């Protein structure tokens, strides 16, 4: 096959895909739209552009340049948004530090990333002081504070953020460079070993932002984020770029609201007072928000919500429908930047009453633009897209991480046969809709059959006395594994194991599950362990039960 390649004119622009290009349209379309930080601060897009330039000048003056790494330890804030742009725009790498890790794990990730400079909120200064001697690469710290006076510290600080920005120029001549330069890095926690570093280039982040904006705004079946919407994340900004939405929101020029530390009552107040229309978060966070005191007397109708991390249970879905929240499910992972699929509702599904749309809204969804996806058997052979065959989900798209930083063996495992392996088991139907059935490591093999922990969780969640549930498989000499459930009861109702087992028997009678899928071990607990990003921590649960 012939390929025709045309040589550009000698003076033609190279057209590099750089994060700085995402700023152009937002500043142009919406100079007066607001960026809000809780109850502390608000300013417009024009000021955002100036503050990004000021931060770039501060970093350059501190000796940070191309290839250096700037770490951020902060709550969701305007400062984090400014760092999303200023750090990679000068050619440096932004390290999103997971502030919910243990101090030793934070030290490990900062050492592994070879951080040079740290932007640190006062709330994390004590942790930084404790681990500072373990991270010799760090040359200095910039303090982030909500008060006029930063906390006293033994750290080598260059000053406080606002004072440094105030003294810096609001202009900066951002240079063009290779779009394949690394822009961001962060660390994902796995089932074993230390956290693994993933990284993304300018090109990957720009392409992900473009595809994400298309997915959130272009389809009538999923109109989530458009120019007149008001955006507030409920996913930490250190976690996969807050799903990439701050980049999209800034590119679109929408009003943005950042809540700081996640306090459910505060989130609801900001939703109400700032007119928030679009958010995203994992089911555990959504459950806390719906259950908080402030939410009980607040009209939540019209709040559009993108959920991910795991599918919302039927119980949570019913709660959101009852409160008038218009929710959609998305799917992705840290290694995929992250969004791979989003639910799309057909015209027929949109015409149904809200309570009849739940089944469609909790599907894993349709691959977004430029995502190539299939399911494979353990030998890597492609399986049919018939809605029945189950296999591991593998993907290819231009914005997937190239591997794990400084870990070639694990990178090769991730990228077997030229496809990124997600570790998820799913089906794909004839229309291309993906349905995740479980994580490979979470599927329960009992009595010679595979049982989905997610399916059991969804069934248990439909009992009116259940507030939250987690199901895992634990070793069993006779049956290989047996399902075990941890259940949190609602405040208003009593609950015991027998009640749950009787509730599940109805699904046995309907032929949806076999009788050996009913857990014999059911514990009523006050809290279910969560990971640092709010997902149910099944690894820890299994450790505690075995």
Question: What's the helix and strand layout?
Answer:
Layout: H1 20-29, E1 34-37, E2 41-44, H2 45-61, E3 69-73, H3 78-89, E4 93-96, H4 103-113, E5 117-121, H5 125-131, E6 140-144, E7 157-160, H6 161-167, E8 182-188, E9 196-201, H7 202-217, E10 230-231, H8 245-252, E11 255-258, H9 264-274, E12 278-281, H10 283-291, H11 293-296, E13 304-307, H12 314-322, E14 326-332, E15 339-342, H13 347-350, H14 358-361, E16 366-367, E17 372-376, E18 391-396, H15 408-414, E19 420-428, E20 434-439, E21 444-446, E22 449-451, H16 453-461, E23 466-476, E24 480-489, H17 497-509, E25 521-525, H18 538-545
Parallel strand pairs: 1-11, 3-4, 3-5, 4-8, 5-6, 6-7, 10-11, 12-13, 13-14, 24-25
Antiparallel strand pairs: 1-2, 8-9, 14-15, 15-16, 17-18, 18-19, 19-20, 21-22, 23-24
Helix pairs in contact: 1-8, 2-3, 2-6, 4-5, 7-8, 9-10
Question: Could you walk me through the main structural features you see in this protein, from its secondary elements to its overall organization?
Answer:
With 546 residues, the chain is an alpha/beta fold. Among the domains are: 163 residues, 3-Layer(aba) Sandwich (Rossmann fold); 102 residues, ANL, C-terminal domain (GMP Synthetase, Chain A, domain 3), CATH 3.30.300.30. The chain has 18 helices and 25 strands. The strands form six sheets. It has a seven-stranded mixed sheet with strand order 7-6-5-3-4-8-9, with helices on both faces. A five-stranded mixed sheet has the order 12-13-14-15-16, with helices on both faces. Helix 5 links the parallel strand 5 and strand 6. Helix 9 packs across helix 10. It is globular. The N and C termini lie far apart (59 Å). The model has no long low-confidence stretch (mean pLDDT 92).
């Amino acid at each position: 096959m012939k390929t025709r390649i045309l040589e550009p004119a000698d003076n033609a622009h190279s057209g590099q895909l750089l994060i700085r290009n995402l700023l152009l349209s937002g500043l142009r379309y919406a100079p007066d739209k607001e960026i809000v930080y809780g109850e502390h601060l608000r300013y417009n897009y024009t000021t955002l552009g100036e503050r990004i330039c000021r931060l770039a000048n501060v970093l350059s003056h501190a000796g940070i340049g191309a290839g250096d790494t700037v770490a951020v330890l902060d709550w969701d804030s305007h400062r984090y948004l400014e760092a999303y742009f200023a750090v990679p725009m000068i050619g440096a790498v932004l390290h999103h530090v997971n502030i919910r890790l243990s101090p030793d794990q934070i030290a490990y990730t900062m050492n592994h990333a070879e951080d040079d400079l740290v932007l640190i909120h006062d709330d994390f200064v004590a942790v930084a002081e404790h681990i500072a001697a373990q991270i010799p690469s760090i040359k200095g710290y910039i303090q982030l504070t909500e008060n006029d006076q930063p906390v006293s510290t033994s750290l080598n600080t260059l000053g406080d953020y606002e004072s440094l920005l105030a003294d810096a120029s609001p202009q900066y001549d951002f240079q063009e460079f290779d779009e394949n330069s690394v822009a961001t890095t962060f660390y994902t926690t796995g089932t074993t070993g230390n956290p693994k570093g993933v990284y993304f280039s300018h090109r990957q982040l720009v392409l992900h932002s473009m595809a994400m904006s298309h997915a959130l705004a272009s389809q009538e079946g999923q109109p989530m984020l458009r120019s007149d919407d008001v955006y507030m994340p409920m996913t930490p900004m250190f976690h996969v770029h807050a799903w990439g939405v701050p980049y999209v929101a800034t590119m679109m020029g929408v009003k943005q609201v950042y809540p700081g530390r996640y306090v459910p009552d505060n989130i609801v107040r900001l939703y109400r007072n700032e007119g928030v229309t679009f958010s995203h978060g994992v089911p555990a966070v959504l459950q806390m928000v719906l259950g908080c005191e402030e939410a009980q007397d607040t009209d939540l109708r019209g709040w559009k919500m993108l959920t991910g991390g795991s599918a919302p249970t039927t119980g949570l879905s019913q709660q959101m429908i009852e409160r008038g929240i218009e929710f959609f499910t998305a799917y992705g992972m840290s290694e995929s930047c992250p969004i791979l699929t989003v639910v799309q509702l057909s015209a027929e599904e949109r015409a149904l009453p809200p309570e009849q749309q739940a089944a469609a809204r909790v599907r894993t969804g349709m691959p977004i633009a430029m995502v190539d996806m299939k399911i494979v058997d353990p030998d890597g052979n492609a399986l049919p897209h018939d809605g029945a065959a189950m296999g591991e989900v593998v993907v290819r798209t231009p914005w997937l991480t190239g591997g794990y930083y400084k870990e070639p063996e694990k990178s090769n495992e991730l990228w077997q046969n030229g496809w990124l392996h997600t570790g998820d088991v799913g089906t794909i139907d004839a229309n291309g809709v993906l349905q995740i059935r479980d994580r490979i490591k979470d599927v329960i093999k009992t009595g010679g059959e595979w049982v989905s922990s997610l399916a059991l969780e969804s069934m248990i969640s439909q009992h009116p006395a259940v507030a939250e549930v987690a199901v895992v498989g634990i070793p069993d000499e006779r049956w290989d594994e047996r399902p075990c459930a941890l259940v949190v009861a609602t405040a208003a109702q009593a609950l015991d194991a027998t009640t749950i087992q009787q509730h599940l028997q109805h699904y046995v009678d309907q032929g949806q599950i076999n009788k050996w899928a009913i857990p014999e071990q059911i514990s009523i607990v006050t809290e279910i362990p969560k990971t640092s990003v709010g997902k149910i921590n099944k690894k820890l649960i299994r450790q505690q039960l075995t």
